[in-house]
Amino acid sequence: MTANQRLVVMLYAMHPTDRAGAVIETGANLAKLVGLSPTVFSRTRRQVVETGWLEESERLAHISYYRLSEKSTGEDVVVPLRRAT
Question: In the chain, N or C terminus with fewer CB closer than 10 Å?
Answer without folding.
Answer: C
